[in-house]
Design brief:
The protein has about 240 residues and is α/β, with parallel strands linked by helices. A 7-stranded mixed beta sheet has the order 3-2-1-4-5-7-6, with helices on both faces. The protein starts with a helix and ends with a helix. Helix 2 (about 35-45) links the parallel strand 1 and strand 2. The chain contains 6 helices and 7 strands. The chain has a single domain (about 5-235), classed as Rossmann fold, CATH 3.40.50.
């Protein structure tokens, strides 16, 4: 029996082979992206590139997979690469301690799936434009902060996302600039927007604001993104 026996039982030998051949790039391995990455590795994805410039901060511990008291101060991508080597050594993990910016060449045309789990509005808008212009499957996370009810997490096409401030801000920016996505793509989102009841916090790591978050919500976002990616890969082969 192998570590992927239960996966193979469900999707068959051909499905396992397709996942092993797939090349996925994930931008952002924080509260949402780290759980997405773990799910992809455990599902049998053969080639995963993770991109994130940040180091683990103590405030990440409540919701981010790489964050423990022992890993504070270490690059998130390095912590995750080490972890993943103990889960699925056959997965080729490329860890890039970089930030996605306009003009940065990540060779997106070489991937089967592109996943966006970054926070920056500007970088997110630019990634949407670049990724949607490729032939790869593209999936995007909207805002996961200020939410509590797991039953309110949804999936919809970008222009059908309602009640999400981040989604509205992205659409406004893209329309203002006269640049729209080249093709439709699915987003994970949640209409719930709760107030922050606790004291103000220093957002740190170049973030504009520190909103409250809960791990069960960020985890559901991340696992849903991974599920969409796996389904996309398998649908192309089954």
């Amino acid at each position: 029996m192998s570590s992927l026996s239960r996966t193979g039982r469900l999707i068959g030998t051909d499905g396992l082979a397709r996942l092993a051949e797939a090349r996925v790039i994930l931008f952002g391995v924080g509260g949402v992206g780290s759980w997405c990455a773990e799910s992809l590795v455990r599902s049998g994805i053969g080639h995963l590139t993770i991109v994130d410039p940040d180091c683990v901060d103590i405030t990440n511990i409540n919701r981010q997979l790489p964050a423990t008291l022992e890993t504070v101060g270490r690059p998130k991508v390095d912590v995750l690469k080490e972890r993943f080597s103990t889960i699925n050594p056959a997965c080729e993990v490329t860890a890039l301690r970089k930030r996605y910016t306009l003009g940065a060449d990540f060779h997106l045309d070489g991937f089967d799936v592109i996943i966006d789990a970054i926070d920056s509005l500007t970088d997110k808008a630019n990634l949407i434009l670049e990724a949607s212009a490729t032939e790869a499957g593209f999936f995007c996370a909207m805002g996961a902060a200020c939410k509590m009810d797991p039953q309110k997490v949804r999936v919809a096409e970008f222009f059908e996302v309602h009640g999400c401030p981040l989604g509205a801000a992205l659409r406004k920016r893209l329309r203002k600039n006269g640049t729209l996505p080249a093709k439709p793509f699915l987003c994970v989102y949640d209409e719930e927007v709760l107030p922050n009841l606790g004291p103000e916090m220093d957002p740190g790591q170049g973030k504009a604001v520190a909103n409250g978050t809960l791990v069960h919500v960020t985890g559901i976002f991340g696992f849903t993104l991974a599920g969409l990616a796996v389904q996309h890969i398998l649908d192309k082969s089954l």
